[in-house]
Design brief:
Layout: E1 17-21, H1 50-62, E2 67-71, H2 81-89, E3 96-101, H3 110-116, E4 120-124, H4 130-137, H5 142-155, E5 161-166, H6 175-185, E6 188-193, H7 211-222, E7 226-227, E8 237-240, E9 246-250, E10 263-266, E11 271-273, E12 282-283, H8 285-289, H9 294-306, H10 312-319, H11 329-334, H12 340-343
Helix pairs in contact: 1-2, 1-9, 2-3
Length: 345
């Protein structure tokens, strides 16, 4: 958005995309996100109400946000979700309202969400093999995810995406099968490099299957992939196969895209984070509940964004040679805001 209310950070990056986490709870336990046995959860009373989320969204829109993505934890666990979708779809200035889900509960919700005004959906699916799914997520609901994807297609939710985290030695032999599956579902597959975010306590650089390796693997099967010229600041680089099929790669780990990053994250309890890797955030719940006016909230958000220097993935790249895990299990237990399932991925 170009206009008088456009706010830019220290590196000249505007505010564009807001990812809103609706809950830190999840019905899966993916090993790259929630590998531990026990978690420190956000207190229920701290969760923003739908009214509070709607109001903050309006304020964010007034300083430049025009893309909103609902995430979690698992967003479909949030009770009354269609009501929130309806509210956010009605906020003037929200041009793109999307959701990222693990798909387990999508089968019974897809139609209602589309009717409520959700524009787009992304389903995370790392494997087509039920046994691998159970090993990865420690739950046996692979069939439900596939049924969820089928339901999303049937409701006519357009621009369906499937996000796959590629891990060496786990699913790097399924790239072609996933592209074929995406083609069947009319969905675009996006391969994501394994990231050393908080929560990924079992991460190691050896397990990262890089963008270069993904391209090599796919080209060796289909022939050369043509890179599609980028016209936006979305994280995925997109490629076209000789038969016209398009897929994406999100190379957050080996080729970060911080230079153009317009994304920030709001946790379910109202902590605003300017980077996926940020160690601290701004508490918006307290001023909101203490009666701050829209103008005061706008000033807080705009002023904080103007001081934003974050380039988390670029910084990580230079520190990565040490190969160490980013956030220790002890610090995750002390501060759940550091967890990927709290900040929304
Ligand atoms: N539960 C929902 C889901 O899985 O789609 C939404 C939240 S989840 C945190 C959002 C995205 O983050 C998912 O696509 C997931 O695969 C991705 N993710 C989580 N941990 C990751 C990691 N260590 N590296 C790369 N992607 C990760
Ligand atoms: Fe997996 Fe998403 Fe749940 Fe994390 S939040 S454990 S990525 S389903
Ligand atoms: Fe944006 Fe931070 Fe991700 Fe870089 S690491 S792209 S600054 S969220």
């Amino acid at each position: 958005m170009e206009g008088s209310n456009q706010v830019r950070d220290v590196h000249g990056r505007p505010m564009g995309a807001l990812r809103i986490s609706l809950t830190d709870r999840c019905n899966l336990r993916c090993r790259y996100c929630m590998p531990e046995e026990e978690y420190a959860w956000l207190p229920r009373a701290d969760l923003l109400t739908f009214e509070e989320i709607e109001r903050l969204t309006e304020v964010f829109v007034s300083v430049g946000v025009d893309k909103v993505r609902l995430t979690g934890g698992e967003p479909l666990l949030r009770r009354g979700l269609p009501d929130l979708v309806r509210r956010l779809a009605g906020v003037p200035g929200v041009k793109d309202l999307a959701m990222t889900t693990n798909g387990v509960l999508l089968g019974r919700n897809a139609e209602t969400l589309r009717e409520a005004g959700l524009h787009r959906i992304t389903v995370s699916l790392d494997t087509l093999r039920p046994d691998r799914f159970t090993e990865l997520t420690r739950r046996g609901t692979h069939g439900d995810v596939l049924a969820g994807i089928t339901a999303a297609v049937a409701t006519g939710l357009t621009d369906l995406k499937i996000d796959t985290v590629v891990m060496r030695g786990f699913n790097d032999d399924e790239l072609v099968d996933l592209i074929e599956f995406g083609r069947e579902m009319s969905a675009e597959i996006r391969f994501i490099e394994y990231m050393d975010v908080g929560g990924a306590t079992h991460w190691s650089k050896e397990k990262v299957f890089s963008r270069a390796e993904i391209l090599k693997e796919i080209s060796s099967h289909y022939g050369s992939c043509e890179e599609i010229r980028k016209t936006d600041v979305a994280p995925a680089d997109r490629f076209r196969l000789p038969d016209g099929t398009v897929f994406g790669i999100i190379s957050s780990t080996t080729q970060p895209f911080c230079a153009t990053c317009d994304r920030s994250r709001l946790t379910a309890d109202g902590m605003w984070l300017r980077c996926l890797y940020a160690m601290t955030g701004t508490d918006l719940r307290t001023p909101l509940r203490d009666g701050a006016t829209d103008a005061e909230l706008r000033e807080l958000i705009a002023g904080t964004w103007q001081r934003r220097t974050d380039r988390g993935a670029v910084d990580r790249l230079s520190q990565r040679e040490t190969g160490r895990v980013f956030v220790s299990v002890e610090s995750l237990k002390r501060d759940p805001h550091l967890e990927m399932h709290t900040r929304g991925g």
